[in-house]
Amino acid sequence: MLGKGVVGGGGGTKAPKPSFVSYVRPEEIHTNEKEVTEKEVTLHLLPGEQLLCEASTVLKYVQEDSCQHGVYGRLVCTDFKIAFLGDDESALDNDETQFKNKVIGENDITLHCVDQIYGVFDEKKKTLFGQLKKYPEKLIIHCKDLRVFQFCLRYTKEEEVKRIVSGIIHHTQAPKLLKRLFLFSYATAAQNNTVTDPKNHTVMFDTLKDWCWELERTKGNMKYKAVSVNEGYKVCERLPPYFVVPTPLPEENVQRFQGHGIPIWCWSCHNGSALLKMSALPKEQDDGILQIQKSFLDGIYKTIHRPPYEIVKTEDLSSNFLSLQEIQTAYSKFKQLFLIDNSTEFWDTDIKWFSLLESSSWLDIIRRCLKKAIEITECMEAQNMNVLLLEENASDLCCLISSLVQLMMDPHCRTRIGFQSLIQKEWVMGGHCFLDRCNHLRQNDKEEVPVFLLFLDCVWQLVHQHPPAFEFTETYLTVLSDSLYIPIFSTFFFNSPHQKDTNMGREGQDTQSKPLNLLTVWDWSVQFEPKAQTLLKNPLYVEKPKLDKGQRKGMRFKHQRQLSLPLTQSKSSPKRGFFREETDHLIKNLLGKRISKLINSSDELQDNFREFYDSWHSKSTDYHGLLLPHIEGPEIRVWAQRYLRWIPEAQILGGGQVATLSKLLEMMEEVQSLQEKIDERHHSQQAPQAEAPCLLRNSARLSSLFPFALLQRHSSKPVLPTSGWKALGDEDDLAKREDEFVDLGDV
């Protein structure tokens, strides 16, 4: 029987030269192959999934302290994932407290989730790509969800090493065709077995009825109309079949420049102001065409800017905000802080953690995004102005900023169904290029930019600062970010609705074939059992109270008063308006020419922003009204659950927010129990009460990074510099002290 391999090492800041020590001799490994095979866990394949290559007698390292313990098993590669089938998987399966994904196991990596592959040759780590002349003795895989896998190949047969390493490199790094994605293999194989969740009421915005419903919900149907001019993608492949434009806008104008230069409605505020977006017209050198474009835009502006009734402020996100290159560069630096190969590396970087974090600029980019969204919110809420977002294709930063504004201003978007509908409207139907931005096809690394992940990080800041305002949890956001790389859902694997419909067979030449029925990520039952799904719903969410007719009249004025903050009145100064003399500058914007400053005075804008921001934060929070984040330095934090969940040293047993939440749930249960007794005395019908997540309540010992940290082996080393931790005592002493931690099992 095979034992666990151990790589020796000691404490301190510098790792000693690693040497493999096994409890069995190398020659015994092959003599015991039969026994290993009998213990191998069965490889579970999804419909349409095919095994491509495999290797046996592979050692998967597990980092713990300064040593590396390993588990023997099989390493396989399919057309969907890389999977390690270890000897101790059966023990893991019996753990009922785990937050399990039904599609992706703990030791599974989808091919799209692989970020970088490294090989270790004579103790030197090198990036692997293309055809190899020499094969490594150790394989290291860095994942886009920030997991790190290390496999020792020393005792694997040479031919199997060549096959598995070459297969993994090819199927994760070689450019792919869209039709070769596993998404289509799965959809074809599971065509008759696909069952949608009847409880999923997410608005998909793929029908005219959906857009009309959204217009009615936001009271925007007085000034805006849903159009079907692009039905069948007759006008533009970039736009969805249905969208909303200002009512005075003639539909023939939409067809003029294939949807470019058209103000497209995003959302309407309670006071009548609206958020719009517009893509730039194509760049032209010919003076005659430029004059035609200028006249066209001049006519467009007259329809949306009619002072004093309709005043429009423009935000050129292409010229006066972040660049996509800035976002990609910052995240590339930021993620390296969490791709830790071993414990020693973690402690070596700990002393310079803050300087590395600051130099990445990722938190500063989050702050800038939130600040821009607050500025736009101030224009709409306090100044009653329409805001027009400008971008080259209106499919990256427009999606990001418009979504954040709606989250801050519309409490419906803070429910789970509302949030999912928001992503469908602004990102999926808004034409965000998920296929390119996530680099799913590996065709152009320069197009890869984590814009959607930046959005989720911004949302997490709001959820973290105002938990009762959101129906979903940070765990929901974390698994949503993981779902970006699971190619059985169509949501994040197309660049546009047109690309999706075309490749699903809806517009294909073969009328005999049945269109594919692709899953959406919003059907959470595909990934999680009902017990696990309880962790996606926030038990502390403050639902909007249902008022009777007698109460509504009195409450309506209070609600409006809370939304309309007592700021200085909107001025009619030419600096604020969208007036004729400014049109030439804005036309230059839309024609692709950069300008050096905003239309509004920057000083005046900063003053309005600060007054609006301070005034809101000086009052108590209405969780069903306007919601603004704190954006001062220390308030923008690292999303610990997503970025630190795979690092044992970063976990706090019995601590963190989960400990606070457990105590709150305990108090909620006591209050509910008292309420039941009161109801019994008054013989009234008991209202249904929200049930605390059983996974959280019944866990014997929770980690600060729950529920993901339950899958990890915890390091016994305390969170102290390596030079001084030994002074606390040996490991036995530390184990005794660890037992003194607060046990949350009964909470």
Automatic annotation (TrEMBL):
Residues 205-643 form the Myotubularin phosphatase domain. It is found in: Cytoplasm, Myofibril, Sarcomere; Sarcoplasmic reticulum. Its main location: cytoplasm. Keywords: Cytoplasm, Sarcoplasmic reticulum. It comes from the Eukaryota. GO terms for cellular component: sarcomere; sarcoplasmic reticulum. The keyword Cytoplasm applies. Heterodimer with lipid phosphatase MTM1. Heterodimer with lipid phosphatase MTMR2. Acts as an adapter for the myotubularin-related phosphatases. Regulates phosphatase MTM1 protein stability and possibly its intracellular location. By stabilizing MTM1 protein levels, required for skeletal muscle maintenance but not for myogenesis. This is Myotubularin-related protein 12. It comes from Pan troglodytes.
